[in-house]
Write a structure and sequence with these properties.
The protein has 358 residues and is mainly α. The chain has helices at 8-29, 31-37, 53-75, 90-118, 146-163, 167-170, 173-181, 185-194, 199-203, 207-227, 233-255, 260-263, 267-271, 274-285, 303-307, 315-318, 341-345, and strands at residues 292-294, 319-320, 323-324, 328-329, 351-353. Strand 2 (319-320) and strand 3 (323-324) form a beta hairpin. Bound molecules: iron/sulfur cluster (2 copies).
Length: 358
Amino acid sequence: MKNLKRTSAEMIFLVLYFPIVVFGYSIYKYPDFFIKLGLFENQQSLYFLGKHPSFWYSLIYTLIVCSLALKVILSGSSPYKKGKKNPLVSYQRNKFISIFFIQLIFFFIVPYIIPAFSSSHGFFSDPITPVNKNAYIYISRAFTSWGGFLYIFVLVPLSVWFFGKRYCSWFCACGNLAETIGITKWGSGWVKFKTPRGDLAKKMESLQTVFLSFAFIYGGVLFIDLLGVFSSSTLSEGFLLYQEFIVDFIFGALIGVGAYPLFGTRMWCRYGCPLAKFMELFGRYVGSKFKVQAGESCKGLDLCTKACPMGIAVDSYAHKDKKPTLGSFGLSNAPCIGCGGCIDICPVKALSFVPVAK
Ligand code: SF4
Ligand code: SF4
């Protein structure tokens, strides 16, 4: 892994970044801990202007994502190739339009604005409620409601069938942050120089299978519990603690987002997210019409590999000793999220998305 030369402004940012992420997310996720520590008197004192901490967390998150997405849309320039001579292609424009509206509507207005306006308490007086710690990407939720089941086992697989894992670069809230931070000046440097690459980094992706297995086992426990066949609060609470603390808090938030500057923007998406592994396995064993194809114009510049936030050796499919090999990859051989970064950055247009032939 090469070193990224850091400016002093970036160094100051780095020193502040991790503690802010840790502290901010901890308050959001575990307010009771801070109350017990005596830092806050009660849950009410964590509220600002009558709003729950989760509102402020999501507002800041949405402002970052939407402002960066809007900047790309309005600039009309490629987010991967800098300079006015490189216009924004329709794929990237549509992707950032999707990120903007999905984040704003589905991850902010629907969960935080509409319920607050329609509640009897008034907009600036949220009721004292426990934090909702259920991350929507957990497979386990699909075992507890019809809505969750349809989402995970019908909608997501359908999207994988038609679009590969573009869900991760066009729709998911975690992916929205990764995509937008990943095209900033610093973020693109983190992707380029800090993303783990090579054989070991690839082998470690099997860690995600472990998280997926736990998600299924936990889902099974919840389902059996729902049916009333067997009930063990110790078992389900143990799993819940593991999901919330180890998977979501430590790995998803602190390592996944907190370590953007150290391991690139897709650490969680590559090694942790159970849904990502589920999508990949569906694409591999059931099918997906998604493929990236390398063409004859490849000159062996390898910019594609450096632009890939998922650490895929795109160049290995495109050329051998700078001679085009016309290779291709899809979900059967790569965890590609269809962000299009490799395609956009290539100056000789050697890569493209193609539908898989029957
Ligand atoms: S890998 Fe998981 S967290 Fe990352 S973008 Fe995809 S669904 Fe979201
Ligand atoms: S291979 Fe290309 S499209 Fe796929 S994740 Fe990497 S940069 Fe994005």
